[in-house]
Amino acid sequence: MFQKISLIEFMQKSENGSTSLLFVKEQGCRYCELAETEIKKDEFFKNHLSVKFFEASINDEPGIAAKLGLVGVPAFFKIDGTGRKRIKTGFDSIESLTKFISEKDK
User: Fold this and answer.
1) What are phi and psi of 95, to 5 degrees?
2) Domain count, the chain
3) CATH number of the domain enclosing 27
4) How far is CA 70 from CA 10, 53, 78, 89, in A?
5) Whole domain around residue 46: which residue ranges?
């Protein structure tokens, strides 16, 4: 399911051919808890078998989030198979997150 990783390790990660997604949360954030409940369901993983999932907490790395341009949580960092990086801040629905994961960067 989700592997724990640091924000810096994830941003340096670039595996050709596969998409990686990092879920960034903050302890005590109710929006993060809502997102976590939804994205950690088996159905979500079954729909994204080719994606490698990671998670990190900004509580563990104060100051790093701002350096990476993170302006809020929950946030999702995506690295596609070519190494392109994108950020999505906020969580409104599984459908929106699925679109973010599957859309190709231009």
Assistant:
1) -60, -45
2) 1
3) 3.40.30.10
4) 14, 18, 13, 8
5) 2-102
Per-residue pLDDT of the chain (106 residues; tens, 9 = 90+): 788 887 777 766 655 567 889 999 999 999 999 999 999 888 888 888 888 899 988 888 877 777 777 888 999 989 887 888 899 999 999 999 999 998 865 4
d(CA 13, CA 11): 5
Amino acid, res. 46 = K
Contact 26, 62 (CB under 8 A): no
Task: Please state the pTM of the whole predicted model.
Answer: 0.84
Using alpha carbons, select from 20, 17, 7, 4 the residue that is nearest to residue 70.
Answer: 7
The amino acid sitting at 63 is: G
3-state secondary structure of 53: strand
Nearest one of 94, 50, 49 to 76, comparing CA atoms: 94
